[in-house]
Amino acid sequence: KAPVFGDLFWLLVPIHDSVLLEALEGREAEAIEIVKKIMTRKWDELNGLYVDVDVKVGYEWTEEGMKEWR
After folding, report:
1. Which of 5, 8, 21, 67 is deepest in the core (most CB within 10 A)?
2. What are the distances in angstroms from CA 15 to CA 22, 26, 45, 62, 70?
3. 31-54 pLDDT tens trace
4. How far apart are CA 58 and CA 37, in angstroms?
5. pTM of this prediction?
6. Positive or negative CA dihedral for 57, 53, 20, 61?
7. Contacts of 21 (CB under 8 A, 6+ apart)
8. HEC letters along 12-69
């Protein structure tokens, strides 16, 4: 059964090698932890390859509106 995260965050737009999500205010860290765990998992089919991710947060989807997450 697939996990349901609809009470915590929503996928707004998948974009090439990134995703735009909306999370409940005040629960950003929890949403980021879940998404990073999913996105950085090792792929056994690719000899354990994994890809690290960068996280930005903000109230506007602009370069000025998004800041690096810690």
Report:
1. 21
2. 14, 25, 24, 14, 22
3. 999 999 999 999 999 999 999 999
4. 20
5. 0.80
6. positive
7. 9, 10, 11, 12, 31, 35
8. EEEECCEEEEEECCCCHHHHHHHHHHHHCCCEHHHCCECCCCCCEEECCCCCCCEEEC
